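Project standup — Tuesday

K.O.: blocked on the structure for the chain from last sprint. Re-posting the sequence here as requested.
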Amino acid sequence: WAERFTSSRVEGSGMAMRIVAAYIDLNPVRAKLVKDPRDYSFCGYAQALAGIPKAREGVRAVIAEPGMEAREALETYRCMLFSVGASPKRKDPQAGYIDRERVREVEALRGALPQSFSFLQRMRCLSQGAAFGSVAFVEALARPWQLATGRKRLPKAQLVHEPHSGDGRFATLRRLWG
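H.V.: unblocked you, prediction finished:
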């Protein structure tokens, strides 16, 4: 964590991990790509809001409160992001930041987002993949997609937890850029 081709180890819990996570998730705000970190599709926070299990576990690890439900961890993390994001960067006064009035709104709601937002976030996330459907459908498209794009590795169908799907299991081919 630092500079383009350098990496550093970060302590896996506590304030060090919170600082790094907030730094990463606020980058698109600082770059003035979005006003709210939830609106940047290519970050773990947006993926967690979409209900992607691995991303939700990441947020829970950052918050590190034993027994905390995923929803509560997301709300706590959102409040933390907004409080950190309300300060302009000292080294770059032109960098974007979160308006203080918006911070007050998020804090008044305790980080909660409307339930409909989770569904919309999930649909946005899923629609950016190469395929979405049953596991068999996605697995059948993985090899042809790999050949068509010249990728070295065969992409794996990633299960999507959809509470409204009944017994159906859905999958997607996502993160196709890596």
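K.O.: great, moving the ticket to review. Residues 162 and 170 are 8 Å apart (CA to CA). The first strand starts at residue 131 and ends at 134.
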